[in-house]
Amino acid sequence: MTKRKQRSDAQQNRERILVVAKEAFAKSGANASLDDIAKQSGVGPGTLYRHFPSREDLLKAVYQAAAEKLATAAMEFAETLPPIDAVRAWMMLFVDYIADKQIIAPALNALVDDPHKLYEASYGQIWEAVRSLVKRAVKSGDIREDLDAIDLLRALVGVASVGASSDWQQSARKLVDILILGSRPVT
Asked: Are 30 and 107 in contact (CB under 8 A)?
């Protein structure tokens, strides 16, 4: 049996719920009111539960949506931007992804049975996104040949670990530019 494609209004409801839920989980943690999330999303509780039968399902979907956004963005950036600009734009988006992950991680860790499985599942999407962008940039000569995409991803995760301060995202964005500069071919 094939899965029916969601109607556009149902898809819009789902996306609104995810945006509101991310904010609610960030503010109230794992115990955020699902009824409030539904109300703020402009849908009834039945609609929320049709999309997300449990609180855990909703939390997982919030996290997975952020990872999927990275994967989709990599393809879009590769089609619309020069190779080095695509890598930089994706890395900046990755900083936002880390911010989202830090916001909902406490709720995920409190509610999801094994959040590491969820993190590992998204890792494949993220790894493939950065790998394809770096490969394209190496091929164009924008990034040096000896740079491994996993090293760039590890450096980026390290950049995100400066998250203890309130202005960490601004610092991380500056460090992305330093990483890009350090990734350029040595002349």
From this structure: yes
CA distances from 29 to 19, 64, 80, 83 (A): 15, 17, 37, 39
Amino acid 161: pLDDT: 67
Q: Domains (ranges, CATH) in the chain?
A: 7-53 (1.10.10.60), 55-183 (1.10.357.10)
Q: Length of the chain in residues, anyone?
A: 187
Burial class for 73, CB neighbours closer than 10 Å (0-12, 13-18, 19+): buried
* pTM (two decimals): 0.80
Please name the amino acid found at residue 57.
D
- In order, the DSSP letters of 11-72 are HHHHHHHHHHHHHHHHHHGGG--HHHHHHHHTS-HHHHHHH-SSHHHHHHHHHHHHHHHHHH
Residues 151, 154, 158, 159: is their CA dihedral positive or negative? positive
Quick one: how far is CA 1 from the chain centroid? 31
Per-residue pLDDT tens over the stretch 121-136: 788 888 899 999 999 9
The 10s digit of each residue's pLDDT in 54-83 is: 888 898 898 888 888 888 999 999 999 999
Q: Is the pLDDT of residue 3 over 70?
A: no
